[in-house]
Design goal:
The complex is a heterodimer of chains A (about 325) and B (about 325).
Chain A: E1 2-9, E2 17-24, E3 34-39, H1 47-65, E4 73-77, H2 82-87, H3 111-126, E5 129-135, E6 140-149, H4 153-160, E7 167-171, H5 181-187, E8 192-198, H6 205-221, E9 238-240, E10 245-249, E11 254-258, E12 265-266, E13 271-277, E14 282-288, E15 293-299, E16 303-304, E17 309-315
Parallel strand pairs in A: 3-4, 3-5, 5-8, 6-7, 7-9
Antiparallel strand pairs in A: 1-2, 2-4, 6-8, 6-15, 10-17, 11-13, 11-16, 12-15, 13-14, 15-17
Helix pairs in contact in A: 1-6
Chain B: E1 2-8, E2 16-23, E3 29-34, H1 41-58, E4 65-67, E5 70-74, H2 79-84, H3 108-120, E6 125-130, E7 136-144, H4 149-158, E8 162-165, H5 174-180, E9 184-191, H6 198-214, E10 218-220, E11 233-235, E12 240-244, E13 249-253, E14 260-261, E15 266-271, E16 278-283, E17 288-294, E18 298-299, E19 304-309
Parallel strand pairs in B: 3-5, 3-6, 6-9, 7-8, 8-11
Antiparallel strand pairs in B: 1-2, 2-5, 4-10, 7-9, 7-17, 12-19, 13-15, 13-18, 14-17, 15-16, 17-19
Helix pairs in contact in B: 1-6, 4-6
The chains are: A alpha/beta (about 325), B alpha+beta (about 325).
Chain lengths: ~325, ~325
């Protein structure tokens, strides 16, 4: 494994801020694909870091024992927003702006903009396929899933099926996506899968192990890794089109007390939780599922405002 | 007239009420929005100053003006961020100016954005009041996404000297959505976040009054001889020069925003915080107008320190007899 700093800047009083790329080079005379993994765009999303740690551990050992297995190149960018990661906050605290809303934008000139531009160009120069790993925000728990903008569906769904996620959610385009890493790479004809799993500031080892297995499968199926390990059967994920996702939103403000778990199959009318008024001692809403299906998103942060998402259900019958 | 446009329940107390101000009933509407970022105090102060002024006009207390058109204002757009004393509301960390056109069924910030958009969507003119981005100070100026005849007239009527055309930064901010609805809209920027600069606000206040008189939203009852109009200088995006730090440390400024600088002139210096030694002298790379300057002294390497507007020479200046 070779490590290279792709971005380095001096800080006012501390060590430099650096973005590191680890590369497992191809040992083949005719290298196959170059696959890049990116994590840590948001500093409070830690599961991607753990996934990269596990993959690096596995790949380093494999490289020592059977370097010829590397038919293609693997790049790992394990911590691309170092100052946010060091403070455990979504945003780089000094600038308070979301790095994943700065890609493809040139104005106003800023250090986070410079950083995202360098990362984007490095990924473009070194990748034929990218996997960008995220956790959910502080509010929602998510089953491992890949989200795909409708216009990239044809190219990305076959790749996403290899990643051992529970579901693939094809959703309509929204303007806000245009400044994200995933959108800009896909626009640049570099297929990019955006994985969303768990919740920020926590590590769910089972979900992470599931995704590690999926990425190893992706690397093997795309010809980047060639090992004699027996192939593990990867179950077919649910493929959700926009109409097969039902969202439940809070009709009041209060505390949400959940009575279900993400990953559970719920029936129509089944109780998911209560929205309570903590001051008056009242139950404001009994939150029930409007349909039968897989509960793949569930509110974890109890403090709830009107309109906040409480749950998402993959309605029964979706593929 | 202060009017409640939205009431959102909160988990622990009274609902969050969201208000707009309206003056006048007929004619083309000018909408003025401030406080999209919770720490942009100049805009909020300026909007409240305009409220006081328009109230006095409508109540007949102001001897000089009568209201002929219609004005709508949202002085405090991002209520929760303002109450938190921060740019963003810590609960959702959402930049309200990345939330337009909003969603009436969505969470608080999206619902507020939707209310602002809905209540201003039929305006003829729009004006967003803001400060510079965090850590910077802006000289009072106009920002626009396009420069056509109507925008040029708006800028001329405002009588503010400097107008910058920006590249369209995103499709999810209010200015973009106003433009999509064919509203003649600009942003007025002055000062820095978390500070109030009343002289800068006064410059913009006078500009907005000038505009309202020129567009007959206000009638000036005095028979004043019209003063010679200030013609704004328009700057394209390629007229802007960013001055970057090549070291990290403490930036000590030597200049004020809103002044002309000459190539080689010192803008400030960066010192090492441990030793106090000068690491770098920051100088102007070209002649121009200092529109933005670093206000917060701690800087990282490669951060922009200043933005200088450098008007390109007219072809006429290259003629042999010039």
């Amino acid at each position: 494994m070779q490590s290279q700093s792709i971005f380095s800047i001096q800080t006012p009083v501390g060590p430099p801020v650096e973005i590191i790329r680890h590369t497992f080079a191809s040992q083949s005379l005719q290298p196959s694909k170059r696959v890049s993994l990116v994590t840590g765009l948001h500093g409070d999303e830690l599961e991607g870091l753990y996934i990269c740690h596990r993959l690096t551990q596995i790949l380093k050992t494999l490289e020592e024992q059977d370097a010829s297995a590397f038919k293609g190149e693997i790049n790992i960018y394990p911590a691309v927003n170092p100052q946010a990661l060091e403070t455990g906050t979504r945003l780089w605290p000094f600038f308070s702006n979301d790095i994943n809303r700065t890609f493809g934008r040139t104005e106003p000139p800023s250090l986070p903009g410079e950083m995202s531009s360098t990362l984007l160009e490095d990924l473009k120069a070194n990748s034929d396929l990218v996997v960008d790993i995220h956790s959910s925000n502080l509010h929602l728990m998510e089953l491992p899933q890949i989200r795909i903008i409708k216009k990239f569906e044809k190219k990305l769904v076959p790749l996403a099926k290899l990643c051992n996620v529970d579901l693939i959610w094809v959703h309509p385009h929204a303007d806000i996506f245009e400044s994200t890493l995933g959108y800009n790479l896909n626009q640049a004809q570099i297929p990019t899968l955006v994985i969303e799993t768990g919740i920020c500031l926590r590590i769910n080892k089972n979900h992470c192990a599931q995704i590690v297995l999926g990425i190893l499968n992706l690397l093997r199926k795309t010809g980047v890794l060639d090992t004699d390990e027996p192939q593990v059967a990867i179950p077919e994920p649910k493929l959700l089109q926009p109409e097969s996702v039902t969202m439940i939103q809070a009709g009041n403000a209060g505390l949400f007390i959940k009575q279900a778990e993400v990953g559970q199959t719920v029936s129509e009318g089944e109780k998911i939780g209560d929205l309570i008024d903590p001051v008056q001692g009242q139950v404001l809403e009994e939150v029930r599922s409007p349909c039968s299906g897989l509960l793949f998103t569930l509110r974890e942060h109890p403090l709830t405002l009107k309109g906040a998402p409480l749950a998402r259900i993959a309605t029964e019958g979706s593929a | 007239m202060k009017e409640k446009v939205l009431s959102i329940p909160t988990p622990f107390g009274a609902p969050l009420d969201f208000y707009k101000n309206t003056w006048g009933k007929s004619g083309d509407t000018l909408s003025i929005v401030s406080g999209l970022q919770g720490d942009h105090l100049n805009g909020m102060y300026l909007n409240s100053r305009l409220s006081q002024f328009l109230d006095s006009v409508v109540e007949g207390i102001d001897p000089n003006y009568t209201l002929k058109g219609r004005v709508v204002s949202f002085p405090v757009a991002n209520l929760n961020a303002i109450q938190s004393g921060s740019k963003l509301w810590p609960y959702d960390g959402l930049d309200m100016d990345l939330a337009f056109p909003g969603n009436p069924q969505g969470e608080t910030t999206e619902a507020l954005a939707s209310a602002i958009y809905t209540h201003t969507a039929d305006s003829y003119w729009g004006c967003i009041l803001q400060s510079a981005p965090p850590h910077y100070e802006d000289a009072p100026h106009i920002q626009t996404l396009k420069v056509d005849g109507r925008i040029k007239k708006l800028c001329r009527d405002l009588q503010i000297e400097t107008a910058r055309k920006l590249n369209e930064p995103t499709k999810v901010n209010l200015l973009h959505h106003w433009h999509v609805r064919d509203i003649v809209a600009v942003t007025l920027s002055a000062g820095s976040p978390r500070t109030l600069n009343r002289p800068q606000c006064e410059t913009l206040f006078q500009g907005i009054v000038n505009f309202m008189v020129a567009e007959k939203i206000l009638k000036d009852k005095r028979k004043l001889k019209p003063e010679e109009n200030t013609k704004p200088q328009f700057y394209e995006t390629n007229d802007e020069v960013a001055v970057l730090a090549s070291t990290a440390g403490m930036f000590l400024k030597e200049m004020k925003v809103g002044t002309s600088v000459q190539k080689g002139q010192q803008l400030g210096e960066i010192r090492d915080i441990y030793s106090g030694k000068r690491l770098e002298e920051i100088t102007a790379p070209e002649d121009g107008f200092l529109i933005t300057l670093r206000q917060y002294p701690i800087v990282y390497e490669k951060e922009p320190i200043a933005t200088i507007l450098t008007p390109k020479k007219s072809w006429r200046e290259f003629l042999p007899w010039s």
